[in-house]
Design goal:
With about 425 residues, this protein is mostly helical. The chain folds into two domains: about 1-210, Up-down Bundle (Rhopdopsin 7-helix transmembrane proteins), CATH 1.20.1070; about 240-425, Hypothetical protein af1432, CATH 1.10.3210.10. About 70% of the residues lie in helices and about 0% in strands. The chain has a two-stranded antiparallel ribbon with strand order 1-2. Strand 1 and strand 2 form a beta hairpin. The longest helix has about 55 residues, at about 185-240.
């Protein structure tokens, strides 16, 4: 009996803990929270009621209150399957709970004076000749719970039939000893099953929520890419000579970044995520040109010093514009990456670039990669003010600018991979 008391205390504490958790920490709606609380409180009540009847301290003086408690216990226990179902998200369970509870409580009240289901004698509690009525209701509720869990599982993309099987086995493991051996473990198993149901449904919700978040993130990323591509197209449409500059430069930065990984260059910063970001955001590098006049962008002759200063302003304004456009639809790391590419891709390794005159590794890595890709494509492409230079000559020029204009480590990566990529594309 001491073991029985300890078990009841443990299951009672567990039900209290689960109730507190539902109230304070679960993200279920109010209706589901109510059903979970009703379920856990019911298990708590029935567990304590059963111990009060079977604790071995029976006194005939308490015959009436113990009878009332037992009638309630025998009426609530089969109804807990409906409580579970409501907690799992099935609708209109209140009416079904009434269908389970009311007929049973009326039967229990009607037969209680005659001791047909249970009775109290001088030595305590005894089962009646019609105790199977209670067992039948209980097994019916078990079938209802199994059906409810299967129905709930169908609503989710992820199902865990093994958990359903374990819940059923747990309940059976508690029912069989009570039915055939008169060992009172029913509510211990019910309490454990209630916790498993809670975990089961919580896992289903979290798994589906995780997939929804992934799908939403994918949608946001697609939206970001469309915004970026749209802006790049607007800028290109203002200067038709640039042609596919944006498309080509994003391929070049990808080649350099992936090559850096293969060569073990800046691998503390460059990973698959970095490659994805620089490929996605490279089209933002000239977004600041939207504030530069067409007269300067399309001028077929050398720019005057004043015009050149106006053109240079696109770098500083590019970072500002990138942040304004993408703010609110992405996180800070994404914003910083876009802003760095737009702002610093004209900085030079020796500090003579613009707009900030940054030097060496002070220049963000994404901008140092962008600088090589941007210059290479600009020089190998025909513009309104110049002819295209053969790729081999441009490669030599970039090689000479290593350590002055460009990051020497990135130039080595560029030299190793760009010509192979050009030949592959040509083929």
């Amino acid at each position: 009996m001491d073991f029985y008391l300890s078990s009841i205390i443990l299951i009672a504490l567990l039900m209290i803990a689960m109730t507190i958790h539902v109230i304070r920490h679960s993200f279920f709606n109010r209706q589901q929270k109510t059903w979970y609380i009703v379920t856990f409180v019911s298990v708590l009540f029935c567990s304590v009621a059963e111990y009060a009847v079977h604790c071995g301290c029976y006194d005939p003086f308490f015959d009436v209150p113990l009878t009332v408690i037992t009638v309630l216990q025998f009426s609530i226990a089969p109804t807990m399957a409906v409580f579970f179902s409501g907690a799992l998200g099935l609708h209109r369970q209140a009416r079904k709970a009434i269908w389970f509870f009311v007929p049973h409580v009326l039967i229990e009240i009607a037969v209680a004076p005659f001791g047909l289901i249970f009775r109290f004698a001088e030595d305590g509690y005894h089962r009646g000749d019609l105790f199977l009525i209670y067992s039948a209701f209980y097994f019916l509720s078990l079938i209802y719970l199994m059906a409810s869990m299967l129905i709930v599982g169908r609503k989710f993309r992820h199902r865990d039939r093994s958990t359903i099987i374990m819940i059923v086995l747990t309940l059976i493991a508690g029912i069989v000893p009570v039915t055939f051996l008169n060992i009172h473990t029913a509510y211990i198993s019910i309490g454990m099953a209630a916790c498993l149901c809670y975990i089961y449904y919580n896992d289903l919700v979290q798994e589906d929520t995780r997939e929804e978040l992934i799908a939403r993130e994918k949608k946001i990323n697609e939206m970001q890419e469309k915004i970026i591509s749209g802006l790049a197209s607007i800028i290109e449409s203002r200067d038709m000579d640039t042609g596919l500059h944006v498309a080509r430069t994003r391929e070049y930065v990808k080649i350099i970044a992936e090559g850096a990984i293969k060569e073990g260059v800046y691998t503390d910063e460059i990973d698959e995520k970095f490659v994805e970001l620089i490929y996605t955001l490279a089209p933002m590098h000239d977004v600041g040109k939207i504030v530069v006049s067409d007269a300067i962008l399309k001028k077929p002759a050398r720019l005057t010093p004043d015009e050149y200063e106006q053109l240079k302003s696109h770098a500083r304004m590019g970072g500002v514009i990138a942040r304004r456009i993408l703010s609110g639809i992405t996180d800070e790391s994404y914003l910083k990456f876009a802003s760095d590419i737009a702002t610093y891709h004209h900085e030079r390794w020796d500090g003579s670039g613009y707009p900030m005159g940054l030097k060496g590794e002070e220049i963000p890595l994404c901008a140092r990669i962008m600088a090589i890709a941007d210059v290479y494509d600009a020089m190998t492409s025909e513009r309104c003010y110049k002819n295209a230079i053969p790729p081999e000559e441009v490669v030599e020029l970039i090689k000479k600018e290593s350590g002055t204009h460009f990051d020497p480590k990135l130039v080595e990566v560029f030299l190793k991979y760009i010509m192979y990529a050009e030949k592959t594309n040509a083929a």
